[in-house]
Automatic annotation (TrEMBL):
<protein>
    <submittedName>
        <fullName>Esterase family protein</fullName>
    </submittedName>
</protein>
<dbReference type="InterPro" id="IPR000801">
    <property type="entry name" value="Esterase-like"/>
</dbReference>
<dbReference type="Pfam" id="PF00756">
    <property type="entry name" value="Esterase"/>
</dbReference>
<dbReference type="InterPro" id="IPR029058">
    <property type="entry name" value="AB_hydrolase_fold"/>
</dbReference>
<dbReference type="InterPro" id="IPR050583">
    <property type="entry name" value="Mycobacterial_A85_antigen"/>
</dbReference>
Length: 259
């Protein structure tokens, strides 16, 4: 598995920007779809960046024997949205980045059925939001996702100051009915995307996950949800990432761990 760190000028963000890519080795992988390789976009959480999955997990080991391109973009703390302060992260990731990467990797698939997205915490919200809004991804997974501000407002959290939340989402009266909520996006989606969510039962986002998943299921989305003992930590996300990869419609082959 080749690890590539790419810097490019983003016309959308009007700055130099970075993305990391895992690309399957031709020597190790010889599959019929080599000219149409599936793609997984893997999103970081709050206070992370495009290096987070490489530094904090064993994602390279997990996919080493699988014919899959893994794309790890950056959104800073922008929640993968077109923010109120002028940085259009949604456009940069959903629209611009696939075009940029296609020039680097002509063999990466641009078919919806072969494009997937997953993320943790803030990235869990980003994965569902991008999948529901862009119609680019057929499968989307959330690990301990910040899927809802259940019975609250972003300002009520201890994650950041009110000015920060206003810079992301603007002035909000009610989260569930806001254009940024997954419920609002679900009402406009075609309901074709398959969703998968997990959250640890000791996670501070557990109640929000239960609330959001129930709402999304009631709106007709195809969502698989599970929970188990766990906290908001990389140890649990890495374990669940194996389940995500096994769930995707790819020929996932996990290398055996060394004793």
């Amino acid at each position: 598995m080749a690890v590539m760190k790419i810097e490019y000028y983003s016309e959308v963000l009007e700055m130099e920007w970075g993305v990391n890519v895992l690309y399957p080795d031709a020597v190790r992988v010889d599959r019929p779809d080599d000219k149409d390789i599936p793609v997984l976009y893997l999103l970081h959480g709050m206070n992370g960046n495009h290096n987070s999955w490489l530094k904090r997990s064993h994602i390279e080991r997990l996919v080493r024997s699988t014919n899959l391109i893994v794309v790890m973009p950056n959104t800073s703390n922008g929640w993968y949205t077109d923010t109120q302060y002028g940085y259009d992260y949604y456009q940069a990731i959903a629209e611009e980045l696939p075009r940029v990467l296609k020039r680097f990797f002509p063999n990466m698939s641009d078919k919806r059925e072969k494009n997937f997205i997953a993320g943790l915490s803030m990235g869990g919200y980003g994965a569902f939001m991008l999948a529901l809004k862009s119609d680019r991804f057929s499968y989307a997974a959330s690990l301990s996702g910040a899927l809802s501000f259940h019975d609250s407002h972003p300002d009520d959290t201890e994650l950041a100051r009110p000015a920060y939340w206003r810079g992301i989402f603007g002035e909000l009266e009610d989260w569930t009915s806001s254009p940024y909520s997954l419920e609002s996006l679900a009402k406009q989606s075609d309901k074709k995307t398959k969703l998968w969510a997990w959250c640890g039962e000791e996670d501070f986002l557990y109640t929000a996950n239960n609330h959001a998943v129930k709402n999304l299921q009631q709106l007709g989305l195809d969502i698989t949800y599970s929970h188990s003992p766990g906290k908001h930590e990389w140890y649990y996300w890495e374990k669940q990432m194996e389940r995500v990869l096994a769930w995707l419609p790819i020929d996932f082959q996990l290398e055996e761990r060394l004793p």
